[in-house]
Specification:
four-stranded mixed β-sheet; UDP-n-acetylglucosamine1-carboxyvinyl-transferase, Chain; 2 domains; binds ligand EPZ; 416 residues; elongated; alpha/beta
Length: 416
């Protein structure tokens, strides 16, 4: 298994181009299931998770070609079964459930199974499909859903679930009648998906707010569309500037998608200059400690919690980080302590006392964003840090060691 080796202590500077958003590309690729014909999607990132969903779609008979620009055609669907061995690799595979039931009238999708960061049930996806008239049974570890044609319904999400909102928005696009999603998630990736569906002919109002109205239509048509930039990747590089007293120009990003992070980095003493489609992150001096509470968008994103914790380990003072979205998203803490961090976990909060510096050591990635936070810690640590199990990071970051090396980091991948 590959490792990433980092010799820390270097100031990062230069320009980094942000890739397409993994969490936008996944539902957009799944939306191809709704139409017969060739779609063209631009700015698709080259990631393991993208390979996984394309393999899953191919198992249904969906054709796709190309890399950064992907052409995809679900004209003929020969199977509606998403097998466990594919779904267990990536829980976002659940995103095929809604489109398959809406287009084919049936779907057999493996339950995603456990995840490092929490139980992550899909009960809200299932409850909503049942409210739209689908017969849904859980059998032998699979979700078996059937419906001749879904009916519009008023859906209330107990929790603003991101993929739940995406799944039901796609299902509702071809339902008969109007569906209203209440307490819907508001992430930018949902707005991107709604824009693509609207281009396909769907009638959607309110994406990006907590009430989304979808007026079902009989058919949708193939489109050409673009995936938005990855706000989590952009945030990761901005935090790297703060941790290395660096000066990084982040291009091909959407600053308005990371306003919560920008506010927090400015509160910590960084200079963030925002432009149209780009920004500049400057870490002039040691950052100040700030308190963070993760929330659904537009609150502080849980997917940047581990990364900003890395920054807080070398800040001035005491920081309290509270994780309200997932119940087990502090796996990076014990690894950071190995690098010399001073962190105490109290329930769903971590109390971080800034230390003068971190010290390199071998550490292990446990999940996608935890691995990004350990890379950040390694960039700030003296001596060498070796990160193992980097397959976690390859799921969500495109060529991370090349992008950081281009900014002056001493970072290399060791194939193993
Ligand atoms: C999406 O996951 C993202 N993944 C996650 O990014 C992100 O962390 C998460 O949203 C929160 O922003 C994709 O978009 C592919 P949720 P999702 O449903 O949709 C509970 C990354 O690093 N819940 O919004 O699975 C759930 O347990 C990944 O790129 C239910 O209880 O998250 C969690 O506590 C990690 N029942 C909360 O809601 C349900 O049916 C939010 O989950 C659904 C969710």
């Amino acid at each position: 298994m590959d490792k990433i080796e980092i010799a820390g202590g270097r100031r990062l500077h230069g320009e980094v181009r942000i890739s397409g958003a993994k969490n936008a590309a996944l539902p957009v690729l799944a939306s191809a299931l709704l139409v017969d014909g060739w779609n063209t999607f631009h700015n698709i990132p080259d990631l393991e998770d993208i390979k996984t969903i394309r393999a899953l779609l191919a198992s249904f008979g969906v054709q796709s070609e190309g890399e950064k620009t992907v052409r995809i055609n679900a004209g003929t669907i020969s199977s509606c079964e998403a097998s466990y061995d594919l779904v267990r690799k990536m829980r976002a595979s659940i995103l095929v459930l809604g489109p398959l039931v809406a287009r084919m009238g049936e779907a057999r999708v493996s339950l995603p199974g456990g995840c490092a960061i929490g139980a992550r049930p899909v009960n809200l996806h299932i409850k909503a499909l049942r409210e739209m008239g689908a017969e849904v049974e859980l059998k032998d570890g699979y979700i078996e859903a059937k419906s001749a044609r879904l009916k519009g319904a008023e859906i209330y999400f107990d929790i603003p679930t991101v993929t739940g909102t995406e799944n039901i928005m796609m299902a509702a696009a071809l339902a008969s009648g109007t569906t209203v999603l209440k307490n819907a998630a508001r992430e930018p990736e949902i707005v991107n998906l709604a824009d693509v569906l609207t281009k396909m002919g769907a009638k959607i109002q309110g994406a990006g707010t907590d009430v989304i109205t979808v007026k079902g239509v009989k058919t949708l048509h193939p489109v050409e569309a673009r995936v938005i930039p990855d706000r989590i990747e952009a945030g990761t590089f901005m935090i790297a500037a703060g941790m290395t007293q660096g000066d990084i120009r982040v291009v091909d990003c959407e600053p308005r998608d990371i306003e919560a992070l920008i506010a927090k980095l400015r509160e910590a003493g960084m200079e963030i200059k925002v432009g149209d489609g780009h920004l500049r992150a400057v870490g002039k001096k040691k950052v100040k400690s700030v308190d963070i509470k993760t929330m659904p968008h537009p609150g502080f994103p849980t997917d940047l919690q581990a990364q900003i914790m890395a920054m807080m380990t070398i800040s001035h003072g005491l920081s309290v980080i509270t994780e309200t979205v997932f119940e087990n998203r502090f796996m990076h803490v014990s690894e950071m302590i190995r690098l010399g961090a001073d962190i105490v976990i109290e329930g769903n909060s971590a109390v971080i006392r800034g230390v003068p510096k971190l010290h390199g050591a071998p550490v292990m990635a446990t999940d996608l964003r935890a691995s990004a936070s350990l890379i950040l810690a390694g960039l700030a640590a003296e001596e060498k840090t070796v990160l193992s199990r980097v397959y976690h990071i390859d799921r969500g970051y495109e060529q991370i060691e090349k992008k950081f090396s281009a900014l002056g980091a001493d970072m290399k991948r060791i194939s193993g």
